[in-house]
Amino acid sequence: MEDGFFTRVSEMEPLMPADSAGELDDLAIEVIRKSAGISAAVHPVTRRGIVELVRKMNSYYSNLIEGHNTHPVDIDRAMREDFSRDPAKRARQLESKAHVEVQKRIEARIEDTPGAVITSMDFLCWIHEEFYERMPDEYLVVQRTDGKIERVVPGKTRETEVEVGRHLPPRSEYLGTFMKRFEEAYDPREMRGLRQIVAAAASHHRLAWIHPFLDGNGRVTRLMTHAYLKKAKIDGHGLWTVSRGFARNREEYLAALAGADQPRRGDLDGRGNLTQAGLLDFCKFFLKTAIDQIDFMAGLLDLDGMQKRIQTVVDRQVSFGELKPEAGHLLRDVFLRGEISRGEIQHIIGMPERSARRVTSRLLEKGLLVSDSEKGPVMLGFPASMVGYYFPRLYPEGVEASLD
Questions:
Q1: 8: left (phi over 0), alpha (psi -120 to 50) or beta
Q2: Which CATH architecture fits 303-401?
Q3: How confident is the model at residue 2 (pLDDT cuts 50, 70, 90)?
Q4: Which residues contact 16 (CB under 8 A, 6 or more apart)?
């Protein structure tokens, strides 16, 4: 250590928590079991639409952790290239859009390149580059604690020293050494079973601790964790995200990260330089948060509950004169079956062809149905205005109330 900054990779030890009571293994088993259950909860076609919604939700919560609050409706608009004239709001929209797009690119790269090492410096710099190349120019400038202004270079690790609260990360000239050790220690290809799940949690902290970039470390860390869970096949096919839990318990999340930053607390706190107890506590917090989020989404995707909420949406729209009552039959069938050809619709809702077309057109206008082409089959849509009805408590109460 030089001037309080870390210079030796041994100073990052321990890399995995010791858990004599086996609590982490029990939690990891729960994550695997429950994540497998949620992935089978809905039709694969319907699931694709929900995954798109979860990506936008993940963007909302990950950026909220950084103090950037972008309304879900504005994220929806950003995905359609509909940006605000207000410069600050537009910048937040671009940031949210960047998160969604980069998450999709990460998922595609993992699918297309099974051998990708997601813990490598190359992969993490690629995430950073993809993210910051999409960021507004004003987000590429940061002010250091000493008042100096620096420009963030997409995909490039920092060349200066930084302070993160009370934590002084490794010196910049040693980042390559630390990141090489990080890659070797946490490469999910080299792990099996429960150890891989625990490593997803431990690597989340240790990457944040290394703090390899001038800015964007929190976002890159959470995107890397998303990649880790997908690589380990415990992301429930994209139906849940741990970032929602971190954001809704932000102070506890930040405290858990800071707790694992601390030095060893004596002879009973492991044999590494950093606290073994702190890393264990963070991993417990991570896995318990994951279980909580899987349970939350599983409850929302319960078939009976979802069908009732779809009907509630239709009943409300009927009361306003916006929809016909028959729309409820169609939406419930689409949810259960994934997609329905347009020729079937009149038989499902028991209306003449012309009337059925009008009902379908109205649902498409409102985004309650979507289709890949003018005459193609219809699928369930999840417009931001209806998210609070379909998925109550997905967003914070105040935000949800303003979606309609």
A1: beta
A2: Orthogonal Bundle (1.10)
A3: low
A4: 185, 195, 198, 199, 202, 279
